[in-house]
Amino acid sequence: MSSTYLVVSQARLDLRIVLRNGEQLLLTLLIPLALLIALTLSDFVSLDVPTGVSRVDAALAAVLTVAVLSGAFTSLALSIGFDRRSGALLLLATTPLSRTGILVARSLSTLIVVLLQAAVLVAAAALLGWRPSVAAFGTLGVVVLGSFSLGALGFALGGAVRAEASLALANGIFLVLLFAGGVVVPASALPAWLGAVVQWLPSAALGDALRSLLAAAPGAMGLDLGLLIAWAALGVLITARTFKWD
Predict the structure, then answer these.
(1) pTM, rounded to two decimals
(2) Contact criterion met (CB below 8 Å) for 152 and 232
(3) Alpha-carbon distance 86 to 94, whole Å?
(4) Are 27 and 33 in contact (CB under 8 A)?
(5) pLDDT tens-digit map of 48-66
(6) Whole-angstrom Cα distance, residue 228 to residue 205?
(7) Mapped to the 3 state alphabet, what secondary structure does 7-38 carry?
(8) 135-157 per-residue burial string, b: 16 or more CB within 10 A, e: under 16
(9) What percent of the chain stands above pLDDT 70?
């Protein structure tokens, strides 16, 4: 059997495992959906919406960023950590599928889950009044790049620390980035001292890129994409050097 066939087969298995976990999948979908509705219908959070832009446009950009962050970083780091603790990852490494192939397969299944989340959120936003512009069609590419960037960091975290530590760290980092990482509130709207740091984070780069496409927010798309690529490269480097299988 070819390596491609083995990778695709493992990705399908990983995806089935995720989809069978109804409770986790429900939370993964419900939280961003609830956030989308709340951000669209109320103004308890300032989204720094540009003049002439509908609030749902900025809300969609924010929740897509949340979906990528939770799916590609937090969930991936947790699953890797617990698979290491249970011995499932080490056992899988004894199969004909190479260790690199195992990580590629997990990346593909994670990307598919993120894209499913994105499709549900876009459909919900359309029901709330969102209408796509020409620029919005670049959203798919940014979501994919953001998924690989944050996914690489998820592998780096989940493969470097114990499962218990990855649980605390992944959730803690998610919460910090959610409220102060340029995810819901752009870095430009944060206090100057904080925004100067946050603007270089992958979460802020992803959020700003999506806001530029979906909400016509001013920004530097080239810089945002470059930051996502740089963080992806850093995550791959750390994973290659520190990833543990047990």
Answers:
(1) 0.92
(2) yes
(3) 15
(4) no
(5) 777 777 889 889 999 999 9
(6) 7
(7) HHHHHHHHHHHHHHCHHHHHHHHHHHHHHHHH
(8) ebeebeebbbbbbbbbbbbbbbb
(9) 96
